[in-house]
Design a protein that fits this description.
288 residues, mainly alpha, 2 domains, flat
Length: 288
Amino acid sequence: MPDAVLGRATAALAARRRPWFETPRERRAFLVVWGGMAALVVWYFFFGPRASYDYNWRWSVVWQYRRFLLWGMGTTLYIFAWSLVFSLILGIFCGIGRTTNVRWARALSVGYVEIFRNIPLLVQMWWAYFGLQQVVNATLNDPFGVRILIPSTFACILALSLYTGAYMGEVVRSGIRSIPRGQWEAATSTGLSRAQAWRHVVLPQALVIVIPPMASEVLNIIKNSAIAMTIAITDLMFYSQKIEEETFAGFEAYTAGTLLFLLLTLLAVGAIYLLQWLLGLKVRTAAS
């Protein structure tokens, strides 16, 4: 009996496992493109014009400053985690607000999206760090004689959350709007309330639809956090620049930072796939 249960569980896992490539043609295209790029890089640096260039590679610098890079990764992950939580909350409520029949909620959601989606992230981050402090000084510090300072990390998380939440709100709205009207009518005809229809009929289907675009927005949080160094946050990009300033090994320092950012995004992609598998969600592909 245990062997039969184990066999069924293994078969279920194998059935759920998503192949790396959907078709043999896609596999060949991947090998040709990335294999050709790798061969071109090897030729350029070891046999082409770059081979005759006298450059003293100093990859040991990356190892010597590894602690700074790890600290920067920790700060980047801290910003990413909090920004992800707040942007998801904002995005879900904004997406629902844009599809509701309540006028004030719909107007508030539309105004939020149109404002924060159309202002560059760098401008929002600088305003949150420099401009918000002036507002606090004028309304609290000067009248009441207190000293409230806006931390740079708070300003970064606030700007990233507001900016990404606006895009996530549009993703959620599009997912909800994609559910046919007949689904609503069928749910209400069976005696479900509007809240129950949302919970049991609409949101489960919309969740499957919005996974790919929502995953892209999650990755954008990691990538957009690189501009946090402009407001004196010691993140991964900040330490990469400091290593270059102290050692003049710009290629090695920024290559290390690039690879670590790539590692963070790949780990985020793996976490998204794992969560999708644990929840039993299947995203439609071209082969299914």
